[in-house]
Write a structure and sequence with these properties.
By secondary structure, the chain is mainly alpha-helical. Helices cover about 60% and strands about 0% of the residues. The chain has one domain (about 1-70). The protein has five helices and no strands.
Length: about 70
């Protein structure tokens, strides 16, 4: 998560959302847009989260995936 936290100067609200995603990493193997839509449906799903994160949801999800599942050479 440190790499995600360093991507930009996140606002307090954005940081809270990133923390929520980080907490889900304990329970999930993959966190993608479908997961976000299902898990956070009551909070607006991926569309609202992307807006909240300044259009950077894809970057955050890719960063999480890259950190969790680095390619094996």
């Amino acid at each position: 998560m440190e790499g995600i936290y360093k991507m930009t100067n996140w606002t307090h609200v954005q940081r809270k959302w990133l923390d929520r995603l980080a907490k889900q990493l304990v329970h999930e193997v993959v966190i993608d847009e479908q997961f976000v839509n299902t898990t956070f449906a009551n909070d607006g799903g991926a569309k609202l989260l992307n807006k909240t994160l300044g259009g950077k949801l894809d970057d955050v999800l890719q960063g999480l995936a890259g950190a969790l599942w680095p390619q094996v050479a």
